From TrEMBL:
GO terms for molecular function: alpha-amylase activity. Gene3D superfamilies: Glycosidases, Golgi alpha-mannosidase II, Oligo-1,6-glucosidase, Domain 2. It comes from the Bacteria. Residues 12-395 form the Glycosyl hydrolase family 13 catalytic domain. SUPFAM superfamilies: (Trans)glycosidases, Glycosyl hydrolase domain. Pfam families: Alpha-amylase. Belongs to the glycosyl hydrolase 13 family. InterPro entries: GH (IPR017853), GH13_cat_dom (IPR006047), Glyco_hydro_b (IPR013780), O16G_dom_2 (IPR045857). One of its GO terms (biological process) is oligosaccharide catabolic process. This is Alpha-glucosidase. Keywords: Glycosidase, Hydrolase.
Amino acid sequence: MTPWWKNAVVYQIYPKSFQDSNGDGIGDLKGIISRLDYLEKLGVDAIWLCPIYKSPGADNGYDIADYEAIDEQFGTMADLDKLIQKARQHHIRIVMDLVVNHTSDEHKWFIESRKSRENPYRDFYVWRDKPNKLTSAFSGSAWQYDEATKQYYLHLFAKKQPDLNWKNPKLRQKIYDMMNFWIDKGIAGFRMDVIECIGKEPDQEITANGPHLHEYLQEMNRETFGKKDFLTVGETWSASLADAKKYIDPKRHELSMVFQFEANSLDQVGASKWDLKKPDLAELKAILTKWQENLAWNSLFWENHDIPRVISRFGDDGKYRVEAAKMFAIMLHLLKGTPYIFNGEEIGMTNCPVESIDDVNDIESRNMYFAGLEKGKSKEELLRSINAKGRDNARTPMQWDDTANAGFTTGKPWLHLNPNYREINVKACLADKNSIFYTYQQLIKMRHNYPMLVDGDFKAVATSDNIFAYERVLGDEKWLVVCNLTKEEATFTSEYKIQNALISNYPARTTLQDITLKPFEAFACQVTC
Ligand code: TEU
Ligand code: CA
């Protein structure tokens, strides 16, 4: 049986920023329910819902205080049940975010754990007498001293996100029980937050890819979703091709697929995302080609809530915004794997620069800024990095229409809107037959209708660096996809003849011999020799 996610497209919702229903300026579950018609029109098969669990919100919900309760700002468990049920009526499944590398320090397990060294929950977390060199992804040491018991606890992320100790079988069982609670509710999958870190060996300074990681995943698979038609996608920042093969090998019974981030470091100099460089698009091509040629199934994405908007980052968010957005969509959605769309990507939302740290909400950016100031860096340099790479870029509220606050809220939005919402919004896109939205809609339909996209082989086509071209081949059928990655014209030629035009962001091509591609032009066609 083919699993449901093989010819599906997943839409990621950042709940805080999607649609507010009660005027408190924060997106919520009722808001999402009110937009299901829109998502059905787009045609997506599933929603990946970023965390909506009870949380003090130090990292916008990735710090969970109760895995089995909904945070008040998002609604109630009844709202969530309703979302699952209503979404089903719109042919949309729900994939939940699973954050089990850490909890909030306000989770009852941690409240117990920090009480005394003898507490039964002590060992649910990682406590040591002395810190080592491990650092937090959000700046500074990964160890926090706790006065009550005079030891340090590990936090690979914020201080308010203590790391769970997966070596403890009791903890693991609690996590599996919790996962089964959600599975029994009728959800269709889990996106697993920094799952590569659960096998950490802090004393050896190993965070990702620890020696027991795959063992834990196999156990989890057995104890929870293993026998179900269920999507599991692991967030694995450091996965090499060899690692990815392990995670997704059906014989190993671990995950359906992983998010790998090799292309994500193209615009940075060294290990830090904040040290900027101009991305080399030839490298982008090489990375995509490597993963397409070597991994049986990829997850395909440009954006998520942690990374900047793709057109601002790798394309053009000015003159050629629409062409670039469609080009990136066509390039990605015709590859082999499961495509993910991050809310707002389908209307070409752009990065949203800020002028002062006071306008920055994200904990990662804020911590980096204040740590940078202490190290003597200038405000200008730090803001330049934040404007290029900061996580708020993708987290500004969804732009629905050109009325006040873009129709996102009637109150004061929790995070500023991008002022370009007057031009860039859902309403304008729906009214324009040539909008980015309809390119996405068409790509999703293609994914549903053509076995080529699921089963076809991928073959890179040699071109100049500014063009990415590939073939998909199934039986005696062949598709050619051609993308101009730049705003300059580019020449392309091929021996093939066009049999059928499939999709394009300019008028359809009729020949492939010695053509001059327009800025960010992209098209796909069925070809014959
Ligand atoms: O992200 C994991 C992660 O490694 C990121 O924090 C990454 O380092 C950073 O965002 C790059 O900009 C996941 C979630 O997607 C993220 O939102 C959470 O903050 C993080 O885990 C902790 O749960
Ligand atoms: Ca609200």
